[in-house]
Amino acid sequence: MKNTLNVKVLYHFYHSAVKAELKRRGFSKDVSGKINEEHKKIIGRAKEIGKSRLLSSYIMATYFIAMNRSTGKPAEENYEILRDGLCASKLFHKAIGDVEHYLDPKKMPGRLQWSADSHKRRYENDWVVDILPGNGEYDLGYDYHECGAYKLCQDEGCPELTAYMCRMDYVLADIMNMKLVRTGTIAEGAAYCGFRYSRRNDTEHQ
Question: Closest Cα to residue 108, out of 74, 142, 85?
């Protein structure tokens, strides 16, 4: 894929958070350079997904693959580095917003259009999604029938890394103060990834 300005900004976003976490954990400075070089190679091979709404998730996946090839650490530890780096980043918290911003009803028309566009499958590695308006059980639902992160990891010969990206979904929901319920993922062999987001009640607040 082309290393566009948007791709570069998202890369810098993740890399800044991870570099800070690597420093806190006592890694040598050359590790961040190795991640940078490996990431450029992965971007060069990655398939285009256009102006996908989930470009940030796609770049998170390219970045996580680069980490796993650069730090010399197992995937679980790399996941913890990414998770802790993002959780410690004030900029990241500000960028993803909170539950009320995410669940704003004004976003629904755009989400439904996104769903319709995704089913046209213009880009091989993009997500394909159905949007489920809230009901008595949840406030917003997604059924992902195709996952860009999973397809990217397959292309790169590391499908096992997709599961860590799936785990990040819970981290992001927690930062936004939402409850996420999921019954299965494509990475685990399910037919689709079912996301059900809800506002937390008083007993679920940490």
Answer: 142
Q: State pLDDT tens for residues 81-108.
A: 999 999 999 989 998 999 999 999 999 9
| Pairwise CA distance, residues 97 & 117, whole Å | 25
Residue 166 φ/ψ, nearest 5 degrees: -60, -40
Contact between 143 and 180 under an 8 Å Cβ cutoff? The reply is no
Of the candidates 151, 158, 154, the one whose C-alpha atom is nearest the C-alpha of residue 193 is 151
Give dist(CA 187, CA 178) in Å, integer. Answer: 23
pLDDT tens, residue by residue, 106-146: 999 999 999 999 999 999 999 999 999 999 899 999 999 99
pTM of the predicted model as reported, rounded to 2 decimal places: 0.94
